[in-house]
Every structure is written in structure tokens, then in C-alpha cells.
Amino acid sequence: MLEITYQVPVNSRMSIIKVLIFCANQVLPECYQNTHGIIFFLLFFILLLQIEATDSKNNVLVFFKLRPDVITEDNLHSNILVSSMLDSPINTLYQAVRQVFAPVLLKDETWSKTFDPKLQKLLSELETGLSTVLRRSDPNCMGEKFSEDDVQAILTPTDEFQFWIECARHGTKLYSKERASHFKDLFEDIAKDYCNLDSLSLFEVVDLVETTRDTVDSVWRQTEHDPYPQPRMHNLLDVIGSCLGRFVQRKLAALNLWEDAFHIVKENLKAGILICEQWASACEYLTGQLWQRYTLHQWKNEKYFPESLVKLGKRLDEVLTVRTLHEKLTFFLPSGEQNALHVAQVFEPFAGLNPVHYNPYTEPLWKAAVSQFERIIAPAEKKVASKLKKFISDIQDSPQQLLQTFQKHKELIKHPNISKELLLERETLLARLQDYVKDYQTDFETRCHGAPGDVSGPLSGKNLSEVVNNIVWVRQLELKVDDAIKLAEALLSDLSGFQSFHQSADSFLEQLKVYEQEQFDDWSRNIQSELSNPKSGLCIQANSPVMELDHVFGTLNILYSDRLVTLLREVRQLSALGFAIPAKIQQAANTAQKFCKQAVILKQVAHFYNSIDQQMIESQKPMMLQSALAFEQIIKHSKSGPGGKAQITWDNPRELEAYIQKLQAAAERLSTENRKLRKWHTNFIEKVISLMNIDLLRQQQRWKDGLQELRTGFASLESQAGKWTFICSYWLVMLSNLH
């Protein structure tokens, strides 16, 4: 039997099949002119034809046999395979490998453990190679008409990273290759992690989300090359969200969310929820706020929001609520009551459901299972509600303990059945929250006009300037008020006084945000005003001298103001708090940062120079004269260039570095010498005092030994520099007087 296949152009297959059916009816005996007989005839005819290579763009159906057997009714379904070929054989093969065979053979445990590792590697390389061939053969990726807006082939973050690697290697223009190489370098921080994503834990990917946000922000706001296209960034944010969602689902699918230990399930679910929430928050912040305010490359149109990832996070939160509710019920109920109320069977409605497999089609099934779960636990909830009511009544006089209890058991109390039973207790909580917010508001209005640290001023923190301190203080108040609002929204939204509380709390929260913005705006105005004043200390010019010697007071001054150090710290801290630093201030901070390291070293040297005379013993100053003069000569002759006519400036890093090393070496010599002199001075004093306490009549030999020890020390010093001879002579005279 010939092993022949036949390709049928989809747009003409019906006409061919009609012809074949007509032929079958003419050729076959009447007894075989039924469905099975016609199918056999069609297959027989197909197997007599041959696939032909063609440039036609028609979509193709391909029928082929697995074995060279005669087709019968018994082997029809086991020997005939049908495949389609869309667009091109390369694209069809790539999609089949990527979406069908690679996931099964590489990720499915049943098949992957029997699949040779070498073959697994070859399969991965085949997928990568086919992807590369497809991108290179795409008309949008060829020649000078390269279109970066086409993202059809970008289905994962790794596809995007690989795209820029290929552009950097095979670009047609030098500038395009340099730009692609720049993007490739920016993505390097996260490319390896996304390539090996399944090897990371949920907790490691929480950190990866943070790194990813910073990386895409750097890519969007880079100014070295033409900006990153918005459609491409939109697609990248989307595929990253999809990739993270699939990762979370795979990791959580490895757990039995209903039977595994609660603390393990809770930690992993919280990590999964955090991944979803962090990426959604990052996309919303970048495209809805930060990039829309970035004038050099502004995000246009609406913000991007990863809706499917958010819904997955919501589903995980619902799963966590179910498990937490069950855990709380078992905590409050003794084992006897649990058995009577069938608490152990509460998860039966979820049998057969994959809770992390979220899509619109599984949502009705999930909601039905949750409803059945709630019906099962209703009797247990009534028991728990009565116990909670008694416990809360015992602590009503302690507002702080009351808040902690409601916060601790929030998941349990917000459930409708328990919430209804605790109506009076929840009204008490609402009254306490209203008092708390009023107290916070009174405290804020009392302190907001004072200076940090004062009795009537904001609370002060360590190493914070006034503006940063005030903003951090008010941020802490915002968090407390926001926590009160969230607790009220979760537990008290059905109470009559809730809306009034919510409005007053929101009003106070807005008041705090206005104060925070005013603090930043005042700081921005003051700094920009100082930058316009050359004498403010914030105006450092790259071509200005690094230091000057005050000939009146004899002090060495580094021309890098302490105010610049404070500015650097303020800019860094305010940026971390989420404020957009004005361009003029950011430029001044960048200039100051460039010279900060050298300035700190020079300030240390200057402090040493200005205070060394206080560290010297008065009688030893003449001995230090030579080294001190050598150090001073280096400072006085801080010139650069041919003939040493020009002063060393900040914008000459090589000469500045050499000069700093020269200064440090001279300062170290002077400091070492001073330490040695002080040490010998202290040593001789101790020995002389020891001699003065010896009785010459009774301990004459001890006196002689001590005196000999001193003379030996002097002899060892006399072999060193002349100044040591001087000090030895000085102490010998003292000894002779004693003797």
C-alpha cells in the first residue's frame, strides 16, 4: 500500500469532496453506498495523491497515515491523522511545538520524566530557532521598513527580550543596532529570571515583580536613544501580566489548597495574590500617573490595566477567604462540636474544581460551589458568633484590644451570618473608629504648623531633613486613617453611620494629602530659588576649583557645600516617597552626585589639616614641622596642567584623583608620625613616673634596671630620624635631673 498524503486547500475543499462523493456513488456497489463506504473511498482516493510544494497562500488540510496498513473500519480512527497548515509550514510547526508538544513533553510530569534530557534540550532549541526564523521572515522585520509596532510574534516576555537581541545582531543600520543593544542591556536584569521562571519560588517572583517595574520604567524613560514605542510597551506589560498569571497558577496547582496545612496554603496564596496586585498596581501607576507626567516620552490615551490578572488575584483571595473561614471555625469550635456540625466535610462542594483556573466560563461553577459551602457552614457560624459576642463584651472597655480583635478575626466577622449576629458589637467598633479619626485629626491640626521635634510640632525621625520628616510623619497618619477606612469598609458598610464616617475620614485623608503636597511644593520652590543664587552653596560648577586656603584663619575649605549633601539625601528620599523631582533640581543633584565621593574624601583631609595642631603635643610641634610644611606645600600648590598654572577643578577627574591620592598619602604620613610621637611621649612619662616611685635606698637595683630600660629605648630611637635624637635628648635631660 502506498504511503501517500493529500493536501486540500480549505477554500476549495467542499467542491472536491462533492466530486469525490459523486464518483463514489458511481463506482461503489449499491451495498457499499453508505457513510462508511464513501469514507473508505475518499480515504483511498486521498492516499493515491501526493503532496506538492506550492507558493499558494491557501490554508491546507493534511491527511496522513501512521502505518502502511490497509484502511479498515476498525483502524480508521487509529491510523489516520488530520492536520492543518496555516500561513506557512514553518509557522504551523512552530505553533504546534510551542503550544502542543513542548508543554506536554517538557512540563507534564508523566511524559517529561521518560523524555531524554538531550531531546528536551533539542526541542527547546527547535522552538527558539523556529521563532527566530519566523521573525526574520516577517516582512515587518526586514530591510529599512522595519516596524516595531508589530507585536504579533511576541507572546512571552522572553520573545520581547530575544527580539532586541536579534535586532542588535542583525540590524541594517548602526544607530538601530546601538539602540537595540541599549534596550537589550536594560532588559538583562530580568531576562534570565523570566527565561527560568519556573525554577523560582512564589516569594522570589514577588521581588522579581518589583525589579520588572523598575526595568520597564528605565526602558520607557531612557533618553540616550529614540523612545520605546507605546504599542510595544503596552504589549510587553500585557504579556508580562499573562506570564506572571500562568506562573502563579502552575505553582499553586502543585498544592492541595483544601487539604494541605493552612499556614503553607496561606503563605503561598498570599504570595500569589501579592504578585497579581503588585503588577496591576505597577501598570496602573506607570501608565496612569508617572509616564503620563513624563513630558520627554508621555504615555498617551488611557492607562493600561491587566484585567485578567486582577480577576485571578480576586479568585485567589476568595480561595484564601474560604480556607481562613474554615480555620477560624475550627479554632473556635472544639472537636466534638466540629463533628456534630460536619465541619470536616465543608470542602466537598469544591471537589472536581480547579480553584486557580480562572476564566469567565468557570466563574458560575465556582460561585455555585461557594454558595453550597456557605450553606454547610451556616450552623457552625451561629455557634462561633455567640462565642465571639461573649469574648467582645469582655473587652469593650479596652478600645485598642477591641480594634485588634476585629482586625484579627476580620475574615470571619465580615461573613454575612456572623456579621448579622454581631450587629451591636460592630456599631461599637464604628463609634471607636470615629473617635480614633477625630483624635488623629486634632493631633495633626495641633502639630502641623510647628517644627519637627517641638512639643507642638511633627514627631521627628533620625537623619531626616524637615521636609522629608514632615512628609513621613503625615504618611504615617495617612496609613492609620486608611487602615481605619479599610476595616470599616470590610465590616461596617451596612451600618447607618458608615457613610458619615467614610465621608469625614476621606475628608481628613484629603487634608493630609494636601499638606503633604504643600510641603513638597514649598521645598521645590525654595531649592529652585537657591539654585539661582550663586552664594547659596547649591551652585557647583564642573569647572570650579575644588578647594581654597583661607590665608586669614589658615583653614582649608572644600568648595562643596554641606547643603549639597543634604540636597542629595532629600532628592533620593523624596523620589523614594513617589514625588516627581523638578528637572532643574534633578540636574543639580546629578551634578552633585557625580563629585560626591571625591568631595567626602577631600572634606576628611581638610578636617585633618584644620585640626592636626590640636592633636599635637605642644612640645612636639617643632619635631613635626618638616612633615607639616610638606603637607601644606601640597595644599598651597594645588595646580594642574603644564607648569602647574591652572587650579584643579571638578571636571578633571584624572588629575583630581591623582591629587587626592597625593593629599591622602601626605596626611597619612603626618598622622602616623604624630601618633608615634604621642605614643613614645606617653611611654616615657609612664616609665619616669615609675622611676620616681622607687625607693633608691632599698631598691637601687630596680632603679638601675628601669633607667637602663629607658636608655635602651633612647638608643633605639637615636638610630631613626634626627627628631627622635631631639626627643631622646629631651628625656635624658629630664632623667639626669631626676638622678
Short précis:
By secondary structure, the protein is mainly α.
Approximate shape:
extended
Distance between the termini: 128 Å
Q: How is the main sheet built?
A: 3 strands, antiparallel
Q: Give the spatial strand order of the biggest sheet.
A: 1-2-3
Rg on CA atoms, Å: 40 Å
Work out the helicity level.
55-70%
How large a portion of the residues is in β-strands, by DSSP E? under 5%
Query: Uncertain spans, ≥5 residues at pLDDT below 50?
Result: 1-17, 44-51, 141-146, 641-645, 720-726
GO cellular component, one term: axonemal dynein complex
Domain Dynein heavy chain tail: 196-637
Protein name: Dynein cytoplasmic 2 heavy chain 1
Pfam families: DHC_N1
List strands and helices in order, with pairings.
Layout: E1 6-9, H1 13-27, H2 35-47, E2 60-65, H3 76-79, E3 80-85, H4 89-107, H5 109-112, H6 117-137, H7 157-170, H8 174-195, H9 202-221, H10 230-253, H11 262-293, H12 307-332, H13 335-340, H14 363-394, H15 399-408, H16 410-413, H17 416-421, H18 423-447, H19 466-491, H20 498-531, E4 547-550, E5 555-558, H21 562-576, H22 583-615, H23 625-636, E6 639-640, E7 646-647, H24 653-692, H25 700-718, H26 722-738
Antiparallel strand pairs: 1-2, 2-3, 4-5, 6-7
Helix pairs in contact: 1-2, 4-6, 7-8, 8-9, 9-10, 9-11, 10-11, 11-12, 12-14, 18-19, 18-20, 19-20, 21-22, 22-24, 23-24, 24-25, 25-26
